[in-house]
Amino acid sequence: MNTDLPRAITADEITTYQRDGVVFLAGMFDAGWITLLQSGLERHCRKPTGRARVWDRDAEGHTMFWDSQAWQGIEAYRRFVFDSPAAGIAGVLMNANTVNFFFDAVFVRSPGCQFATPWHQDEPYWSVEGYDTCTLWMPLVAVKRENALAYVPGSHRLDSVFHQYNFGDLNPDHKTADQVDFSAIAESAMPDINSDPERFGVVSWDMQPGDCVVFNSRIIHGGSGKLDADTDLQVFTTKWLGDDVRIRFRECGMDPDHSAIMIEHGLGPGDRPGTDLYPQVWSRE
User: Fold this and answer.
1) Element of type H or E holding 98
2) Span 22-31, pLDDT tens digits
């Protein structure tokens, strides 16, 4: 497969990403990549990792499945990480010199699932710190705007430390080891986006397989879900690290918590993520 971008990312798209912290890109991945990821996800759901969680299971049996860091065991994911245009897209939008891969995560909602993602930021949960982190959010099935992940443009530049949601509580099967508690460091509550989405300028898009949304990992996002009875949602995401990112072990907890495996590979606070755990996939040269 071809690692080249299917088209040039425009100056307007770069400006939008830098200004808003999020940009929608249509048709950036051809059918071959989508088929590959669908095959990987099918295998993944049959054999999850030990980090898998069922974030929601209601009385009717609707579920929301999440898992991450499966790329080293699923060849389809590995091929996507190293050979697809994803790293190049991230590098161009972040205006990075180099881009390292951080981790993958999947979100699978069964038809009719009503679970909505709580509003949150990503980077404050992670075992790294830096402005230049981003996520490529890719649906593997068509998704309507009202069911897709939504974003608060410009919120990636806010200085406030918000009281973030503890996703570790979202598992009816067992307690996960990855827990966070922002109560000791939070300066304010997460804004009540649902009370007035229009005032916050919330954006989301109708999307087809092959489209992606790229968002800065400090942007406030959430709200996806509440599916129709005949509609499911399958999302594959990849997380990418730009130039300013360094390892940080947070006292408030981390989710996913990479600290133990980082230490095992000789990485510690202040280091640039690297080794075969977080490989450099793209460079501007």
Assistant:
1) strand 98-109
2) 999 999 999 9
